Prior knowledge:
Chain A is 38% helix and 25% strand. Chain A has 250 residues and is of the alpha/beta class. In chain A, the strands form 2 sheets. Chain A has a 6-stranded mixed beta sheet, sandwiched between helices. In chain A, strands 2-1-4-5 form a 4-stranded antiparallel beta sheet, with helices on one face. In chain A, a hairpin with a 2-residue loop joins strand 1 (3-14) and strand 2 (17-28). Helix content of chain B is 77%, strand content 1%. Chain B starts with 7 loop residues before the first helix and ends with a helix. The interface between A and B is medium-sized, with 41 and 21 residues.
Amino acid sequence: MGTILEVQELTxxxxxxxxxxxxxxTLNEGEMLGIIGxxxxxxxxxxxxxxxxxxxxxxKIIFKKESIAGLKPYDIVNKGIARTFQIVxxxxxxxxxxxxxxxxxxxxxxxxxRKREEIEEKTMKFLESVGLSGKxxxxxxxxxxxxxxxxxxxxxxxxxxxxxxxxxxxxxxxxKEISSLSPLIQKLSQEGHSIMIIEHKLRELMKLVKRVIxxxxxxxxxxxxxxxxxxxxxxxxxYLGKGGSALATG
Amino acid sequence: MPRQENRSVFTSERIGLLIVLAILSFIPFYIKDRxxxxxxxLANIYAVYVASWDILCGYTGQVNFGHALFVGGGAxxxxxxxxxxxxxxxxxxxxxxxxxxxxxxxxxxxxxxxRGPYFALATFAAAAVPYGLTDVYxxxxxxxxxxxxxxxxxPTLTGKYYFSLLLTVLCCGIVYAGGRSNRGLILKxxxxxxxxxxxxxxxxxxxxxxxxxxxGFFAGVAGAFYSHNQLHVGPETLSVNLSILxxxxxxxxxxxxxxxxxxxxxxxxxxxxxxxxWEELRLLIYTAIVVLMLIFVPKGIVPALTDxxxxxxxxxxxx
Lengths: 250, 319
C-alpha cells in the first residue's frame, strides 16, 4: 500500500508560541492512525493545518503526491480530505437530510447539476450508513448529542473522502453510544478509508488503531504501536501516567 | 419530505402567494383611487428591494447596511442614461440592474472578507460615498434636488401598475425559487455555520459573492424602475434611511424566508401611508409598533404564522 499523506517538518506558530513544531509522519492508504497527547499538545491544531483551517508557518503537507499546505478548506475537501470537529458544528436550523445534502452538493460530492431526487437518494445512503435513517426530517437542533456526532460523520463521508480526520469522535458520549459508533469507524476503515483519530478515550481508541502518534507541547514525541507507546517513558511521563499505560494496551 | 420547504405548510404558502397575486392582478379593476394604485406600485418596488436584501442577508447571514447603494446605483444609472442619452426605460432598467450588480462585485470582493459588524460597517460606508458624490458632481446629478424629467415607464397608470407587478413577480419569483433551490440551501448553510459549510467542501466566498451580485442586480432593477415611476432620480435612493427601512421591512416580515420580507414590505408601506393622517405622531407610532413587533414576534410575521399553522396541523393530526 502506498503513502496517502506525508507530513514534513510541519510547524505552526501563534506569535511566539509554537503550537505545532517540526512534526513529520506518513500515513499509508487504508491505515488508521491515532493521535494522542495532553490538552494543548497541538492535536487539533494539527488537524486544522491538514484541513486548511490554519496556514502552516513552515513545513510540507503532501496528499497523494500533491502539496496541499495553505490551500483553502473547501479545496482540501475537494481533493479528498474530510474532517469532523471536536465540538460538533451542525447546521442547527436545517434537517439532518439537508445537513448532509450540503456535502453532496460540494464539488467532490458531485451533486451539482443533479436532480434533487438523485441527491436525496444519495444523501439517504449516507444517513443510513451512520444509523440515522428515520431521522432525516428532524432539525439538527433537535437531535441528541450522539446523533449529532453521527450526523457530522455522515456530512464528512458525503464528500466522498479518501482520508477522514475524526477529532474526538467519542467525546461526550456514553459507553453505549461509543460501542455503537466504534464499529462504524471500523467499518469505514475496512471499506478502505484512511483515517486519523484524535481521542482521549484511550481504551476505545486502542481497540481501533494499530499505530499511534503522541504529541506533547507541539512536538511528536512518539510514533508506534499501542504496546510500544505503553512502554515509552516519554509518553508515560507526558500523558499516560503510570496507571494509564495499561489503558494503552487495552 | 425532509426538505423544510416541502412541508405542507409551505405548499400552503405557495397557494397563499397565488391568492395574493390574483388579488394584486385585479387591483386596477376595483380600486379607482389613483393614490392607492400608486401606493401599491411603491409597495411592489419595496417588495423587490427587500427580497433582494433577503437573498444576501437572510440566507447567508451577511447583514448589508448599504442596500441603498444598489437601489441608488440602479436608479441613477437608469435616470442619467434616460435623461442625457434618451435611452428607453425598458433598456435602462436592465442596465440599472447590471450597474448595481457590478457595484455588488466591486464592493463585495473586499467586504466579504470581513465578518459581522465589520462587514456591516464596510457596506454602510460603501453606500455613503456615492451619496456624497451626487452632491460633489451636482452639475451632472442635479445635486440634492436630483434630476426631474425622467421618462415614464408606461403612459397610463394601469399599464405602469401591471409593469410594476410583472417586474415584482419576475424578480421576487426568481429570488424565491433561488432561495429554495440547492444553491439556496448552500446559502442557508453559510448562514448557519460558515466553517461547517467550508468543511463540507463549499466555496463559501464564491457563494457569498454571487449572492451579493444577485442581490445588487435585483435591487438595481427595482431602483431603476423607481426612477421611471417617480419621473425623478435623487439622492434619497442612496440614503441610509432607505437601507434601514429595507432592513425593518425584512425583520418585521421574517428574515431568511423571502416571502416574509415581501409581506413586510406591503404591510409597512401601506401602514406608513395610513399613518399620514396623524402626521406629527407618524414616526413615533411607526417606530413603537415596529419595536413592539420585534419584541413579541422576533422571528417576523410570516415565520410566526407558518409556525402557528404547523402546530395546528400537528394538533389536528394528533387529535
